[in-house]
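F.,

This is the one I mentioned.
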């Protein structure tokens, strides 16, 4: 995988959306419900991604839920 961070473009403003969570999909055990937020538009989008793709986002961006549970501020929020 390249060193570039994976990103999801915002469908409204086309800025990079920030990866925030990957949870088990409620209806498909082989998929993950992956959520992104656009701080420009203040909206979220969730996508059903395969386990491998969801893992690629965690590897690229880190696990923001783990950082919140540990009491640390997510890196994306710290730069804004």
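My design for it:
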């Amino acid at each position: 995988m390249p060193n570039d961070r994976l990103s999801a473009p915002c469908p409204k403003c086309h800025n990079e959306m920030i990866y925030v969570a990957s949870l088990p999909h409620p209806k498909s055990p082989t998929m993950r419900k992956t959520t992104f937020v656009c701080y420009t538009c203040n909206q979220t989008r969730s996508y059903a991604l395969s386990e491998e793709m969801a893992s690629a986002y965690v590897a690229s961006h880190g696990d923001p839920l783990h950082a919140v549970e540990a009491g640390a501020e997510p890196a994306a929020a710290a730069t804004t």
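Strands lie at 8-9, 16-24, 31-38, 43-50.

Talk soon.
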